[in-house]
Amino acid sequence: QVPMKAAAITNTTNHYTATVFNDADAGKFSTEYIPLSAGDNIIRVDFIGQDGKSETRTVTVNRK
Question: Which of 13, 19, 26, 33 could lock onto 41 through a cystine, CB 3.0 to 4.6 A?
Fold first, then answer.
């Protein structure tokens, strides 16, 4: 597994790009705020490795 260099998070439903706090040394990241629209919100997380390659994951969050 290649160590993580950075991560980027976007709510693709409302096009909000979250501020991401990357800790490349620990291979972790965090964010403090992602606004959600009513209904399903598709959250896209892009992981960027030390080798420059990226991998994307999505999760759907429903706000009632």
Answer: 13
